[in-house]
Amino acid sequence: MIYFDNVSKVYSPTSIALEDVSFTVSPNEFISLVGQSGAGKSTLLKLLLAEDRPTSGKVFFESQDVHALPRHELPILRRRIGTVFQDYRLLPARTAYENVAFALEAAGKSDEEIDHDVPQALELVGLMDKAWNFPHELSGGERQRVAIARAIVVRPDVIVADEPTGNLDPINKWDIIKLLEKINGLGTTIVLATHDKEVIDSLQRRVVTLDKGKVVRDEQRGKYVL
């Protein structure tokens, strides 16, 4: 489904973000990318979303080189890859419902589709009772749930979660991880970037470990070891 083929990203001779990275992500897999800050996790995700270009190598999504796509096709790619970030990136002047609806509006969906799909997404993340609250009225965990609802409402093939629990307390952290596992169980591929050892060790899923831009370990039921 996703294939990084000898991917390198060099910003300068003294700043090498990735070096000859190769690995595959299969459909419906739950994979964690781990490593310390600066290991290259976020750079990999930017390359997958075609937000940046590799210096060498290729990134494939379902046999398509994402960096060979015409510019007008990039929004289609990005709708197939839902994104969740550490800082939520919600629109502060819109309610939870409106934040989720915004993703469908951007995809050109009809009012009928929005009215049908948004409540389903909010129900899945357990936030239908907070649909009309604004982000500042929600806890950090609730805001992250809205962000996840926004990511899944367009029914993507993949969810990319970049440090999604980084700003959360332990209780909310585990709630978000359980939610990602639930979404994976419904058939969505999950790519989780994190440096949280507790999360990695508890998941018992595949772990790809990055260190200084290189893949140093790839284990089917891995732990966080550097």
TrEMBL record:
Give the similarity note: Belongs to the ABC transporter superfamily.
Membrane topology of the entry: Peripheral membrane protein
One GO location term (cellular component): plasma membrane
- Any one Pfam family here would be ABC_tran
Q: Which PANTHER family match?
A: CELL DIVISION ATP-BINDING PROTEIN FTSE, IMPORT ATP-BINDING PROTEIN
Q: Mind listing the GO biological process terms from this record? A: cell division
The principal location of this protein is membrane
Task: Supply the NCBIfam families for this chain.
Answer: FtsE
Q: Which UniProt keywords apply?
A: ATP-binding, Cell cycle, Cell division, Cell membrane, Membrane, Nucleotide-binding
Source species, please? Candidatus Sungbacteria bacterium RIFCSPLOWO2_01_FULL_47_10
Q: What is its biological role?
A: Part of the ABC transporter FtsEX involved in cellular division.
Record note on quaternary structure: Homodimer. Forms a membrane-associated complex with FtsX.
- Please report the name of this protein according to its UniProt entry: Cell division ATP-binding protein FtsE
- Subcellular location per the Swiss-Prot or TrEMBL entry: Cell membrane
